[in-house]
Amino acid sequence: MKKIQIITAVDRIPVTSLVGMSRVSKTKVKVPSGISWQPLPIKPHAQLSITDKVEDKNTVWTAKLVFKTCEEFEERGRWAYRCRLSDGRYRLIGSSERPFPVASIGENMPENVTENQLNEVTVSWQSALFVPFISE
């Protein structure tokens, strides 16, 4: 039976902080201890879609995270993102190795002041490995 999973929070960290991360199974990773995740102020709820496809007999996993925020993203470095699910688990988008997640930011300037003026952030990441959960 499929469980309803909703993204309740999004955090980010520079990908260099994930050096030393290890896979504990096909679907889980263990991140280094002592990481200080930077919480992002998002409008509930973010959207995460994960797809897979086979290219040249290899599976490629793609994660696409979309959220709205009032924050100005002035630092455009390489970031990894942690998505908190409604059941308390976390999904990790990114790693300390290439390819890195790519974020694009759309600024919304509507003609009416009562309409949405939040920035829309789209983060996409492709990997040859499953988009993992973070192991405790």
Question: What features would you describe in this structure?
Answer:
The chain is mostly beta strands and 136 residues long. 0% of the residues lie in helices and 51% in strands. The protein contains no helices and 11 strands. The protein has strands spanning 7-14, 22-23, 28-30, 38-40, 42-55, 58-69, 79-85, 90-93, 102-106, 119-127, 133-134. The strands form 3 sheets. The protein has a 4-stranded antiparallel sheet, with no helix packed on it. It has a 4-stranded antiparallel sheet with strand order 5-6-10-9, with no helix packed on it. The protein is globular and about 50 Å long.
User: How confident is the prediction overall: mean pLDDT?
Assistant: 91
Radius of gyration: 16 Å
Terminal CA distance reads 24 Å
From the structure provided, what is the oligomeric state, counting identical versus distinct chains?
single chain
Low-confidence stretches are: none
The largest beta-sheet arranges its strands as 4-1-7-8
Please estimate the helix content.
Answer: under 10%
* Overall geometric form: globular
Largest sheet: 4 strands, antiparallel
Element-by-element helix/strand order: EEEEEEEEEEE
